[in-house]
Write a structure and sequence with these properties.
The protein has eight helices and nine strands. By secondary structure, the protein is α+β, with helices and mostly antiparallel strands. The protein has two domains: 142 residues; 120 residues, Beta Barrel (Cathepsin D, subunit A, domain 1). A hairpin with a 2-residue loop joins strand 1 and strand 2.
Length: 269
């Protein structure tokens, strides 16, 4: 079988550059393009190991070593966590891009596609699209999960364990005392014998009252205990995947500070 080294190097360089670029986007690395190019050049030249007779274990170790060197060239070394994050995403993205190219190659199997030149054309056409779609989806997923919180609500002997979502548009506040309101799905709280108050809520299309209860304590994982919070029963079930509560953005943006400012405003009035 004929192997065209120049085309093979171009294919490998293009793949490595796209993968490294996607890692820099996903991990928000402020890296100059020339470092990615240098790392990709090193990766493409190191493909010569494929022509050296080595056993599988040695080849595996060598590939990991070369990948580690590529990561250091592209992103530098700050600490072990920084390095490992870069390395893990590099290998994951390599599997995704390689898997998609292999899948498309099988689906479009022909004498043209099976040629090395055909694979180069395939790479140039589909790889940027694959990397863009994959990166966009992962960023969306990453942003979604970064807005999810585990919270425990304590009310009159009841403990409710919830998964809350930080809805940046949800900023319902008690107009009487400036307390933030956390919304939960109906049926999660036993409302019997509990005192409640009605808090006005205004949306783009409607205005209504929400039944709210005073929480003894709210524990937000990663933030801590939050006092003086109201728990409101949402009139419509929260439809966000795996979420049964909407946490008020004021709690996550310096809730105590917002209460102080609110009280200052009330005093001035």
């Amino acid at each position: 079988m004929k192997v065209y080294i120049d085309i093979l190097l171009i294919i490998n360089f293009s793949c490595d550059f796209l993968i490294l670029y996607s890692v820099s986007i996903l991990l928000k690395r402020n890296i100059k393009v020339r470092r990615l190019i240098l790392s990709s050049l090193f990766g493409s030249i190191s493909i010569i190991v494929l022509f050296v007779k080595l056993n599988s274990f040695i080849l595996f170790l060598l590939k990991n070593l070369l990948g580690s060197i590529m990561i250091i060239i592209a992103f530098g070394y700050k600490n072990i966590k920084y390095f490992l994050n870069n390395l893990v995403y590099f290998f994951l993205n390599s599997l995704i891009v390689g898997g998609f190219i292999y899948f498309i190659n099988l689906k479009l199997k022909s004498s043209f596609i099976n040629s090395l030149f055909g694979n180069l054309i395939l790479l140039l056409i589909f790889s940027p699209l694959i990397v863009y779609t994959y990166t966009k989806y992962l960023l969306k997923l990453k942003n979604f999960y970064s807005l999810k919180y585990k919270i425990d609500i304590y009310i009159k002997g009841q403990v409710i364990n919830l998964t809350a979502y930080n809805d940046t548009g949800m900023n319902i506040v008690d107009p009487y005392k400036g307390r933030a309101v956390i919304l939960i799905n109906k049926g999660l709280l036993n409302e019997k014998y509990l005192d409640y108050l009605l808090i006005p809520c205004n949306t783009v299309n409607n205005s209504f009252l929400i039944k709210c209860f005073k929480a003894d304590n709210v524990f937000v994982k990663g933030i801590g205990n939050i006092k003086d919070v109201l728990v409101g029963i949402t009139p419509q079930k929260i439809s966000i995947e795996g979420v049964n509560s909407l946490i008020n953005k004021n709690i996550l943006e310096g809730y105590n500070e917002s209460i102080k400012n609110y009280k200052k405003i009330i005093k001035k009035k």
